[in-house]
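Narrative summary of target 7.
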Amino acid sequence: MIAKEDVFEIGQITRPHGLGGEVNFTFTDDVFDRVDCDYLIIEMDGILVPFFVEEYRFRKSDTALLKFLDVDDQETAKQFTNKPVFFPKKFSDGEKPADFTWDFFIGFTLFDEKMILKGVIKDVDTSTPNTLFGVETPNQEELLIPAHEDMIIDIDPDKRVLKMNLPDGLV
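Modeled conformation, tokenized:
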């Protein structure tokens, strides 16, 4: 049996896609693409169940289409709708934060150096020379925060928390 402490959440299946058993997968961590692991874990009726990935392809920077082994029709794929997706920690232990892409931080809660909540990182903008975090504040405003290694104080991937040293006047 797979225990909750042996996995971490990386996204959610949103709905079936087409008639062949594919599902839309919105992810906050692309570890499944960076690390060699043949399966993802879905919580089904309170139990963590491994499902082998037959194939996947990216649609956007935070969305992929997944095809699980032996899920070959829309009716079977419907059972995955709105289910959280987990990844086994044992396959990601060797990674260091420096190996992550900036998209890894999507879904992280952002705090400043004084542990004051700033918001949740909703997207990453790499279209400019300076990468920016798109942060949704608790009052639903959007902030753009420079994503720079020198500003990061601490990363807690298990709790999905990022602590940054933010210059005065930035927020």
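The domain at 100-164 is CATH 2.30.30.240 (SH3 type barrels.).
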